[in-house]
Structure formats: C-alpha cells, structure tokens
Amino acid sequence: MSIAASTAPATFVRDRATWLAYLAVGLFAFLQSSLGPVMPFLRADLGFGYALASLHFSAMALGMVATGIVGARIAGRWGRSDAFWRAAAGLVVSGLLVMTSPVAAGTILGAFGIGACGALLAITIQANLAEQHGARRAQAIAELNVLASACAVGASVAVGAAERTGIGWRGALFLAVVAYVGIVVGFRRVKINPMVPAGTNLGAHGRGRRGLPRAFYAYAAVISLGVSVEWCMVFWGADFLEKSAGLARADAASAMSAFFLAMVVGRFAGSRLAARVASVTLLRTALLATAAGFLVFWLAPVAALSVVGLFLTGLGTANVFPFTYTAALDAAPGQPDVASARLTVCGGSAVLIIPLILGLMADVVGIEWAFGIVLPLLAGALGTVLVAERRTRIGAARAAHAAA
Predict the structure, then answer these.
(1) CA–CA separation, 261 vs 136, rounded Å?
(2) Which residues contact 105 (CB under 8 A, 6 or more apart)?
(3) How far apart are CA 328 and CA 223, in angstroms?
(4) 38 pLDDT higher than 50
(5) Which of 101-115, 126-140, 144-158, 280-294 has the lowest mean pLDDT?
(6) Among candidates 268, 319, 263, 313, which has minimal Cα distance to 32?
(7) Which of 322, 382, 373 shows the shortest CA–CA distance to 350?
C-alpha cells in the first residue's frame, strides 16, 4: 500500500501546504505563459524573426525535458523542500533575465531557466500534492490547474495593460518578483513533504521491479499531443491574431486572455464533472471541442470570430492535461515523483518540437498556413485516447478472468 493511500484524509482539506502548491505553480504558469504575449514586443525590440523567436519556446521546453530526466534524482538528493525553494528562486531569476537582457542569447537562456526551474518546482510540489491528498488527488490536481490557468490569464492581461499604460511589457513580468517575495514571506516555514521521511531517495522511490506500466505511457502520449496543441496556441496565438486576423499588437496580446480565461472556465467545470462523468468520456469530448474551436479560430473571416474560436479552443483543451495527468499517476501507484518527472519529459519534448516546427513553417508559408499542424495533433490525441481506453478494458477483463 502506498503512503498516500494509507494516510489520505477523509475529506479534502486545503491546508497551507496545498495553497503553497497552488500559488507556486501559478507563479510558474504566469512566467511560462507570458512568453507568448511578450514575443511580438521582444521581436520588435531585439529585431529577430519567427525562427529565432521559436528558439525561446524550444529553450524553455528543453529546460523542462532536462529537468524531467534528472528531477526526481535532484529531489531525492536535495530533498523536496530545498529542491522546491531553489527552483522557485531560479524561476524568478530566469524571468528577470528575459526581462532585462539586451541580446537574444540572454533571453533564450532566461527561457531555458524558466522551463528548467519551473519544471523542478512543479515536479516536487505536484508529487507532494499527490501523496498528501491520496485518493482525492484528482481534485487537488484539477484545482491546481484552475489556478495555473487563472495566472496565465493574468500574464496575458498584464502584458497588454502594461504596454498600453506606458509601463512597458517588462513591467508586467516584474509582478512575478512581487509574487515570489509574497510566497517566501507567507509560506517559507510550510513543510513541503510531510508524507515522505527526510532523506528518502525519491528518484527511486516506489519504482519497483516492473517500472512504469504500459497504461502510464499511453496516457503520457496523450499528454504529449495535448500539450503540443495547447502550447502552439499559447506561443503563436498572439502572432496569428496580429498577422492573420489583423489585430493591433497590443490588442492581440490582450486577446490571448480569452484562451486562458477559457482554460479557467473549462478546468473549473471539469473539476466538478469529474465526480459524475468518466474521465475518458470527458477527454473525448474535450478533444472534439478543441477541434471545433480551432477550426473557427483558424478559418474565421473576421477578427472577432477568431477570438471566439480562440475561447472555444481553450475551453476544449483545458481538461486534456489534468485528466490525463491524474490517470497517468493512477496507473503508476506509489511512484508520484518518477511518474511526474516522466510526464514532464513527455510534455517538454512536445513543447520543444512542435512550436519550433510551427515557427519554421511560418517563416516559409506564413503563420496562417503553419497553424494547420494543429489538426493532425488533435486527431492523434483522440486516436490515442481510444486505443488507451480499449487496452484498459482488455486489461480489466483479463484481470477479472484471472481472479475468477
């Protein structure tokens, strides 16, 4: 029996450790999501094209992948508490580098740091949530993603508002520094890993002889494809609205808040529906809704309709990650750190590859046609869900037959 299973509370309690997790991942989401809205301004200030801009997104994703490979070992060596707080400090320093560097090499390095430090922060704190809340982890993960989406909305709104008021887009990123100081002052004494003894080797904790099961990797594939779609929209949505839909640059940055607002609404609704509707059914519905919304966004003849499509796309894709993430953890009981790290590799790899391809295509055929890459990604995600569902049914039938 896992530690979480034996000590899970009878009711869902949002204690200070839970709120620390929510706020910390929200800080990561703010900085991570800000790269898309600030990119048109960064490109204008430093004078580079789509391909070089895409290297920022790829660098951030590469940082996530690198941390996903070694993150569980780092958490085991430093302990979750030290790993978490060092990652939080590194995250903010990386954001400051993006904000202040006068050359692209520095901003790319800052983007890498956002991905690497943010991923370590997320691995440690999400594994802690999974163990702390046990059987109620789905609600904790869903609520965490609601708050993360809300912070992503804040990033988009803050960038547009700061530029309009004359503060400049860099002023919006300074809010992350303020938030970090508040988190340190308010939560520095909160115990990060009350469910795991000090000195536990989290890199190997719960790994077992069999390793992670096939069902886990099926769900990981869905996460990869879903993350690819989500971050194509996050990274290049503002540029699409400016170049294809005809919005002004500041208006395009602000319009991205429709996507992130839809993510908040969708994840809030999903956290309530999860108690009554099967996760696989919700996943299929979410992917179909994403496809419908994207077609409106991509093909709309007027800017207003493109923004409506952007909202519908966010509403659909909102629940792809939290439901598949929870399902993947459920498929790997007793291994939250290792499973979370592997999922970080899958998601980071998707972000590393697909937005870069979209950016390279945009330089050749224009950003409007380049966005067509989203459709096969959605088809692949839906097909993988159907395959995973079939394999799960077969596995359950075999287990029942063996028990009989």
Answers:
(1) 25
(2) none
(3) 9
(4) yes
(5) 126-140
(6) 263
(7) 373
Nearest alpha carbon to residue 205 among 308, 307, 80, 294 = 80
**C-alpha span between 180 and 27 (Å, rounded):** 7
What is the residue extent of each domain of the chain?
14-196+212-403
The answer for residues whose C-beta is within 8 angstroms of residue 182's C-beta and 6 or more apart is none
Segments of 132-282 assigned E as strands? none
Q: Is the pLDDT of residue 113 over 90?
A: yes
* Secondary structure of 3-70 in HEC code, one letter for each residue: HHHHHCCCCCCCCHHHHHHHHHHHHHHHHHHHHHHHHHHHHHHHCCCHHHHHHHHHHHHHHHHHHHHH
| Residues 385 and 226: beta-carbon distance below 8 Å | no
| pLDDT tens-digit series, residues 199-212 | 444 444 444 435 77
Average pLDDT value over all residues in the chain: 81
Per-residue pLDDT of 294-346, as tens digits, reads 999 999 989 999 999 999 999 999 888 888 887 777 777 767 667 777 888 88
CATH of domain 14-196+212-403: 1.20.1250.20
How far apart CA 296 and CA 309 sit, in angstroms, is 5
Phi and psi at 245, nearest 5°, equal -85, -15
Q: Is the pLDDT of residue 24 over 80?
A: yes
